[in-house]
User: What shape does this take?
Amino acid sequence: MMALCRGYRGLLLVAVALLPLALPLSTAMDPIGSYCTGTNYQGNGEAKASINSVLTDLVAKGSTGGGFATSSAGKDETLIYGLAQCRGDVSASDCSACLADATNQLPTACSYVSDARIWYDYCFVRYDNTDFVGQTDTGAGLILVNVQAEDDPKAFEKAVGKVMGKVAAQASASGSGGLGRAKDKYTPFVNIYGLAQCTRDLAPL
Assistant: This one.
């Protein structure tokens, strides 16, 4: 059972789980969720072409660039910016497969609106008609709630907070590459795992 919190522009990927974070690829390729807002470009051929160009470029660059890429295409009102990033602890082949799936699903999931984001266990992809690259954005995210009953919710919350503090500190530390991971024993039979990751377009504090 998992308690997950994902927000993708400050500490971008934060996960807490009672299971190991390494997931089978079949699970990783199911989208966790999406966020869609803004102008609908369904009837705008130039804007749709810009979106498709950006998404294609993100897959190509992200698959060969260490799991991170930015891109832009179009001009004036059809100028689109994009960003893709894989989780820092997944293999290159899993990263490439996730980016391909995410960029294929995103236009359908969001019907070509001007600001679209999709989350997977292994990667994140976003495009927008405003330049968000290098800018911290905590205005949108995805929250999944742990529905498993805990004997002592306050103790569990405290234990989760401890793990999150560790991974946040690691991810923001110099030389970490923006990735933090931690594991704490909650009970003799249960571990809490945490992961935090910043997008690589953000400068360290």
